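Re: beginner question about structure tokens

> Can someone show what the tokenized structure looks like for a real chain? I only ever see the sequence side.

Sure, here's an example I had lying around. Input first:
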Amino acid sequence: MERQAAMQNVQRRTIDAPLALMGPLLDRVAADDDPLWPVRTWPPIQFDGPLAPGATGGHGMIRYSVVEHVPGRLLRCRFDPTLGLVGEHELRLEPDGTGTAVVHVIRGRLTGGMRILWPVAIRWLHEALLQDLLDNAERAGTGTVRTPARWSPWVRLLRRALATRPTRPGTASTGAERPQRCRCPDPHPHLADPRRRFRPQTAVPRTAASAT
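And the corresponding structure tokens:
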């Protein structure tokens, strides 16, 4: 019987903006005017239909399908079982005093090569992406970011390695080769050099507190 490892990862930030303002932003995830997803520096999130149960998609090679969408409050997805991560992830909004907590949670079991890939690489890329997303949420809700997240040297090294890794012939397109530019300022302007661009065909999803 294949060994599996339980895993949970939580990323959270309280935004000084009411839930009534933040809620509609969640419902625009994967839309052309999505204000949350950090599309300028990561593969865009895409689905084959509206945010409703059964819609399938993902970002880069990380594939998942929508299992629940509560407008203005919750988006929950289930990972493709072939990924090596058996479980779900969710992005939810919760009232926190006069503000709003933006919370992303992964719960699942790691199988196969993902038992090594997650702790060594994917976890750190995932957390960097989520901190960029939380920066966008804070910017959208308040007009500024008090303490912008910064990628760790390890994340920068991983991204450089992925950007220079050749794509295998016949690799399917992820639809991320020409990402639309978000409306927010680029938090990492040094990546404007296309020679250092992240190549999402081979990619998988800044460090922050997490629970594993």
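Each token stands for a local structural state, so reading them left to right follows the chain. The helical segments are 19-26, 114-142, 153-164.
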